[in-house]
Specification:
Length: 191
């Protein structure tokens, strides 16, 4: 990541729903001496519950929900450039960014995924982990590349899957880990 001579690093966080990772990132980076500024929250869903955290902290919100993907990404990219965003962090963003968007942004994009990548890419990870009777699962923060859930891994944290685990309990366990993992991974990436 390019050094910005003491200037803050402007981050945009993309969400689609609950936004608990967004909330933990806001809380983490609001420290006075933080070198990160969460400048924009993007949601493809105007009703995303997580938008409340952005509103509460007076962070700008951009709703990106046009039906035409090409037009949507063009407008989104304009917004991102206009806001001088240095880094995009996907946090429960359930849309796939196109190869063109990733290329044209030119700067890094990170994602958090609730599994021990490269295992369990894609959707319904907890369900599949339980069905396969895995002993461990976890979460991974990685670079976004055009191939889904496949970019370079920045940090990963394991959790134990207990005998009595169900989807809900595993989701809860992993979310708790993610709330510490994502801020840590961003700091690692920026250092
Ligand atoms: C998180 O567990 C995140 O890892 C996952 O969605 C959840 C969002 O929760 N992301 C993906 O599945 C991406 N493929 P949140 O909205 O409460 O932060």
């Amino acid at each position: 990541m390019e050094k910005l001579n003491g200037k803050k690093i402007n981050i945009a966080i993309f969400i689609s729903g609950r936004g608990s990772n967004l909330n933990s990132l806001i809380n983490h980076f609001k420290k006075k001496n933080s070198k990160v500024l969460i400048r924009l929250v993007v949601s493809n869903n105007p009703k995303a519950r997580g938008l409340i955290y952005a509103k509460r902290s007076k962070i700008k919100i951009y709703i990106s929900n046009s039906k035409k993907k090409e037009k949507l990404e063009k407008m989104l990219l304009n917004k991102i450039i206009n806001q001088k965003i240095d880094l995009i962090c996907l946090a429960g963003f359930m849309r796939i960014l196109s190869r063109n968007f990733i290329r044209d942004f030119k700067k890094p994009i990170l994602n958090i995924h609730p599994s021990l990548l490269p295992k369990y890419k894609g959707l319904n990870t907890h369900k599949r982990v339980i069905e396969n009777k895995e002993k461990f699962s976890g979460s991974t923060v990685h670079r976004v590349s055009p191939k889904i859930d496949s970019g370079k891994i920045i940090l990963q944290k394991k959790v134990k899957v207990s005998k009595y685990e169900n989807e809900k309990s595993l989701e809860k366990k992993i979310l708790k880990v993610e709330h510490k993992l994502y801020p840590k991974a961003i700091e690692k990436f920026l250092n």
